[in-house]
Amino acid sequence: MSATSSPAPAPAAAEAVPLTAAQAEFLAAQTAAPDYAGHNVGQYVELVGPVDTEALRDAVARAFDEAPWLRFRLTHGDDGPRQSPVRTPGRPRRPALLDTSGAADPVAAALGLVRGQLACPPRLDLLTDPPAPDDVPDLAGSVLVTVGPQHHLLVQFFHQLAVDGHGLALLGHRIAELYTAAVRGLPPGPSPFAPVTDLVEAESAYADSEERRTDLAAWTRHLAGVLPPAPLRGRSAPPADTALRATVVLDRADTAAVEAAARDAGVTWGEAVLAATAAHTTARTGAPEAVLAVYAAARTAPGTLRVPAAAVNILPVRVAAGPDDTFGELLARAAAETAFLRRHQRVRGTDVARAVWPGHAGSRVPGPLVNLRPFETELDFAGVPGRVVSLASGPVDDLAVSASRSAEGLLRLDLDANPALYRLAELESEAAGFAALLTGLARQPRTPAGRIAATGRPAADAVATAAPRALAVPAGDREEGPLTLLPAAHRLREAAGPAERAHEHVLLTVPPGLRTAPLRRALGTLARRHPALRLALHRAHGVWSQEVRAADAAPAVTDPAILRRYPAEGLDAAARERLTTAAARAAGAALDPSSAAVLRASWFDAGPAEPGRLLLTAHALCVDDASWQLVLDELPVLYAWFAGTGAGAPPAALGEPGGLTAWAAALATRAQSPARVGELPYWTRLSEGPAARSWPAAEGGHRTVTRLEVPAGPAGPHPVDVALLAALARAAVGRARLHDGSCLPVGVELPRPPSAPRTMGPLSTVHGVRLPLGPDGPGAVRLLLAAVPDEGRGQEQLRHLNPQTSALRAGSPGRGVVYRRRTAPCAPDAAPGWGPAPEEEWPAPGSSGGEPPLTGPVELTAEVRPAPGGGHHVTVRWRWSTALFGAAEAAALSEAATALAARFAAES
pTM for the full model? Predict the structure, then answer.
């Protein structure tokens, strides 16, 4: 049993007490519309890492037991509704445990279940007349959902009668504390909660006080002459059960700009958001000032900050905001209004509205809602970060703006809207425009607001200013939509075995002490820069098509599960090998190109003193050897930038990425060019040779690794290709299992051409050759390779990208031996601590799945690294068919062919 599994001491029986003022308002609103579900609110805590689910469920149950007023029965007294806590010691409130990991989109499936719960209105009749004394409905609950290996969502849902945002934050902190104590074997600390009676008594004393009368008089004077705000859309509608939501997370540079503008004005980022909301509102309505409905905690009395209950208030804030006002002026007004609100926040907003606007009959202050949330958005569950994400915040009759700080320190803007007044596309445009206005004002605080266009830049008649440093992601981020199938995609389409799990990986050494949040952010920005990491594969009736997802809709950008942290401190080499292999297998299984889930990162955290490892796994449709070098060049810079270490150049220095869609379209055009079609006779003669032999397919394979040194060769074909292919052709003599009776057919895969764009993607090329058996030396093979037109790049283009020549089957790549030459990634000079991990640590090929069956006698991959004097260090990875060769023979052939290749290379 975990340390938190024993129940908390039951408090003494409590008498019924009045509702808080906020509860009374929520109860009145819910009673007036009993079938309305909009007062249900919810959030989830995302946990990526090792979690003891039973200890977590116990921690939730204990935290709820420590706050018995979250479950209460309603009665009616002479002074109105009253509440009394309902304790059920025999019914621990442990969250249900669900598992959606088998769904196509496990997170979406989990949230779909929760949104169904949020759409159910409460049974108020059961609060007052339960079927049994203790059988009242829960107004607060939770579910723990497993969405993948070491990936959980702790989903929490509440009715506003039970708790507000501040109370919810108190509960979250306590759950994290109890869980951490449990898994570390420590006794839990005392409960931090105060009873709801503290809040009720404080409100009761205030209700009849001179302070309240003074506060209400201050509001009445402050808002004298102010008209009630007009609807933003020019019409109004009742709030729906659920609101639409659009979210914008400002990047680090935009967040810094907003914070700098606020700091220079002596205000907070919250007041900057408030000022921008006022400017946005008056630009929409044409009114000289904005009247906003701003959330307030209303917890200034001693002890009330420790009560997990509902006390929230909504009060009117007026901010004059004309087109000639600068951001500096708006900030000063917003700060003054916020200070006034804080001084007088305890008087209920509904009382203020009725005093200022006698005809007002609504259940809250009118105007666009503004919720500045100071609560932490990441909790610590014994070293596993818990990212807090809001799902629903209550009724929205028009538009609501919520602002908070993400776990990475970035400013997050959530815009919620009434679906009766907005379409989702309109709301997304509204959110983008508001974010652009906020950042534009922040960057130009002395420019009149009317001159800041919707893009956040000065309008045409504004004075131009120098562009500030920004983390704007260039062309790659703007690439989206259909993508012409590259030759590599056609190659995979025709390959044996399933395409879903075909993938490659690279294992990197990384500096000690990395942090999860900036690493995840860096990976997301990498995907924004490179369209291939946002690639989705669609198949219908055997026909393939591809699209590049928009950055904000791509899992590599939006899904926190892209990165998993594995504690590896103190593990010996064998344990690390097992962990790496298991992580590689899990990462490969998590790929799903149909939903654009094409990248996974596994971080092996070896602690603050020892370098860690980072395993990157990507679908085969997204990477080639040059792609991994791009990752090594860019990821350290992006990480340093987001970690705020001060090292590394800003991401703009990485250059402009992208170009994948243009490259794919250009290949299709080139396939129909006269020059490419002119190669047709060569490839046709190749295909008209003897019929390709069919070898038995074999799973796995006998794997061996050999090494050799290849000096720089003469101009022409690459010396590594010449040496290894000549050695294979010689080794094939007398071994009918390797050749087709007349020659050695080889499919040759070469790295992307120098003209390819600087972007990730499978841009390598494959062509077929027929090598003569038993050459005396490398000369004949060098001449044969030199005669291949354009280094073989045209064969796949003619075969797959030209509808006229594809019908002629213009020489399919030779079936038989598969030879690949790849450039091994190298450590970047400007990023100490980053580089490829030692070869012996890499997961064994095939251990994570994703390899197609072997359809020929042997595959060999030559990984080439530069050597002094222009030479090459070559590591050759062999995979021999188990249907044709025994393990000992495969090892002997590998060694013999490598020795022969070394001799041929020396002769060249």
Answer: 0.54
